Amino acid sequence: xxxxxxxxxxxxxxxxxxxxxxxxxxxxxxxxxxxxxxxxxxxxxxxxxxxxxxxxxxxxxxxxxxxxxxxxxxxxxxxxxxxxxxxxxxxxxxxxxxxxxxxxxxxxxxxxxxxxxxxxxxxxxxxxxxxxxxxxxxxxxxxxxxxxxxxxxxxxxxxxxxxxxxxxxxxxxxxxxxxxxxxxxxxxxxxxxxxxxxxxxxxxxxxxxxxxxxxxx
Length: 217
What we know:
Layout: H1 7-44, H2 48-62, H3 66-79, H4 86-112, H5 115-123, H6 128-158, H7 170-181, H8 184-212
């Protein structure tokens, strides 16, 4: 027998999940981007030890499933004697995942800047950080817009993994409503529409900014 739950209530619950998904995505992108910038400087810096550590960090998070990373953060903290909420665990897990991928994306953009730019700025007696700040990063920024915003779409979709550890995002609430209403096609169709509403504007924005800043040139 199909549970008689009004459509308005279903939409209201899914809207709550959509908001939670959006908030988690924003937190993961901001924190992950900040951490990724530090990893980037270590990855392209002149200190051999930091380059190796940052490379190992990137490889670790790129070559293990996000689901396993979530489990390790959530259950690892509990085994260490710390009680953390699913929200905190999901934020930390996605932050680490995001920082590794963004650092590698940005490294590619930094290395795409012509070597002559480094040599020209070096001839002006600029320090390494002055070269990065005034010459290299502004050019790399234009190259990084499309892949960065494109990866933000992956972050939004990656938040669905957080439902496994109990975080009530769009996927988790969709699953609960599907079990309560026995209408999986309707519920998951609405869930898919919710993710589309979050992801499509990001893709459109990336395309618009790429054209505006001539990032492809």
